[in-house]
């Protein structure tokens, strides 16, 4: 029996030679779109237009995913959001990450010592994904940042990791269009490259209101990847500019350098058969 159009092979994967399954790709695109909307549920029409798929096919997919808990809907059945099953899968990723178990206690110690906000993130495509956060008691966010993703080019976490790359490897993680998050965001590729060069010379990345107004952030790449493979993880510190002095900056940078060294000494080795991101 011939496969339906939803089950037919799709575009070749150039790295593995395995052909993409169209229905699986569509399901992933839908879940990622719903997750990216955070607390903004979507109507069927919005999802159909965003994904450019037939309304009837998408409705059937939403019904299936809702039944299995990957998508949730309101009482009227017309609004859709990410479901609880996505949380369970995401939590298992965190639970099994060997580096998170090393990094989180260090972030907690930094928080106790300096009472600023500290993050642990991982590079994923054009973005950096937050895997752990230790909030300051002086600057509390109304939500947890864990699981959120932000453009790498305008965050201290991301720029610390971009600075570890060059040529085509860097281009893979920088979008063609640099969309501003604030008025301070670097949106010119030449200016970004110059900023990354300063990051290499300095030894850590700096984000001055590029992602959030009022915040000055410091990012440090964690170099526990095998030789020849650029780092994928970084830690950062976010400080309200209103209380950042040159003395405080020096204290934070010194503490972050020491924390990076501790993490790199304690981190389990990444081998060729280790899990990829």
TrEMBL record:
<dbReference type="InterPro" id="IPR036390">
    <property type="entry name" value="WH_DNA-bd_sf"/>
</dbReference>
<dbReference type="InterPro" id="IPR050707">
    <property type="entry name" value="HTH_MetabolicPath_Reg"/>
</dbReference>
<dbReference type="Pfam" id="PF01614">
    <property type="entry name" value="IclR_C"/>
</dbReference>
<dbReference type="InterPro" id="IPR005471">
    <property type="entry name" value="Tscrpt_reg_IclR_N"/>
</dbReference>
<dbReference type="InterPro" id="IPR029016">
    <property type="entry name" value="GAF-like_dom_sf"/>
</dbReference>
<feature type="domain" description="HTH iclR-type">
    <location>
        <begin position="21"/>
        <end position="84"/>
    </location>
</feature>
<keyword id="KW-0804">Transcription</keyword>
<dbReference type="Pfam" id="PF09339">
    <property type="entry name" value="HTH_IclR"/>
</dbReference>
<keyword id="KW-0238">DNA-binding</keyword>
<dbReference type="InterPro" id="IPR014757">
    <property type="entry name" value="Tscrpt_reg_IclR_C"/>
</dbReference>
<feature type="domain" description="IclR-ED">
    <location>
        <begin position="85"/>
        <end position="269"/>
    </location>
</feature>
<keyword id="KW-0805">Transcription regulation</keyword>
<protein>
    <submittedName>
        <fullName>IclR family transcriptional regulator</fullName>
    </submittedName>
</protein>
<dbReference type="InterPro" id="IPR036388">
    <property type="entry name" value="WH-like_DNA-bd_sf"/>
</dbReference>
